[in-house]
Design a protein that fits this description.
Elements (H helix, E strand, L loop, with lengths): L3 H7 L13 H8 L4 H34 L5
């Protein structure tokens, strides 16, 4: 099951950690080296970057279209 908090920990992020277990994140990340989980997390992170970039481009395109429909310059 996908849980953003767990995926963040598996990816090595300590942002959501509120306990004193920050040092253990490196250990957890080491467990994943060479596993299908590591590959899937890397794929997820890469795809998320592409998605965010596309989302930003779509927002800009919509704003540009809105301006063009109002007769405004870009």
């Amino acid at each position: 099951m996908y849980c953003k908090h767990r995926i963040d920990i598996l990816a090595g992020s300590s942002d959501a950690i509120i306990s004193d277990n920050l040092i253990e994140i490196a250990t957890i990340k080491q467990w994943l080296i060479g596993t299908p989980i590591e590959d899937a997390i890397q794929s997820l992170m890469s795809t998320e970057k592409v998605y965010l970039s596309a989302k930003k481009a779509l927002t800009k395109a919509k704003k540009d279209l809105s301006k063009a429909l109002r007769g405004e310059e870009k």
